Automatic annotation (TrEMBL):
GO BP terms, alphabetized: tRNA threonylcarbamoyladenosine modification
Organism: Trueperella bernardiae
Pfam families: TsaD (PF00814)
SUPFAM superfamilies noted in UniProt: Actin-like ATPase domain
Gene Ontology MF, one: tRNA N(6)-L-threonylcarbamoyladenine synthase activity
Taxonomy, superkingdom: Bacteria
Protein name: tRNA (Adenosine(37)-N6)-threonylcarbamoyltransferase complex dimerization subunit type 1 TsaB
Gene that this polypeptide is encoded by: tsaB
Record-listed E.C. numbers: 2.3.1.234
GO cellular component: cytosol
Amino acid sequence: MHFLTIDSSTGIEAGVCHEELGMVRDLAVATSASTREHAEKLTPLIQGALAKAGIERPDAIVVGTGPGAFTGLRAGLVTARTLARAWGVPLYGVSTLEILGLAASDQGAQEVVPIIDARRKEVYAMRVRPMGADDVAVIEAPEVLTPAELAERLRHEPAILAAMSADLYPELGERLVVAPRPSVMARIASSRLARIEAGEELSLDTEPLYLRRPDIHQG
């Protein structure tokens, strides 16, 4: 089974991975660090990833649901929904923070606070811990915090920080630098899909996790 993965919560990433007999391996990743023109840049990245993986279309799509910048996140979700309809394939949504949390768990972290830059000198953060090999359990729901607020919380409730950059608010201290690889996204989606089919009440919907309104509505 081939998965196309899309995440535009921060930068822009498209990837392809293959699942067989419970094992998921990455086939292709195409990225852009740009925080602008997501809609224009995403389609060529998807086409490039599919071409590198040697497939015309996937069997399913997994999209990151944020949190992230309003415009960029919306572009990824709209693109994923459009492609899923056009190809007639299922679409699954997974929080980008949970994706970072599982990537950190793969490096041995047991309790993780994944963080994403929320701009305005704030971060999006949540607290998770591994649940099996292919998913995480949410211990504290995602929220918007200043680095100082997060640092104070970690002083009383220690956990490993995980981010996509070592340069994100260095005053927070050391953190694992992780990459939300396509295989990590697919593993979470596959794990939850199996649990849903077994009767658990879980969600893989693609509603965006904005946490706050876009800048244009502030004031």
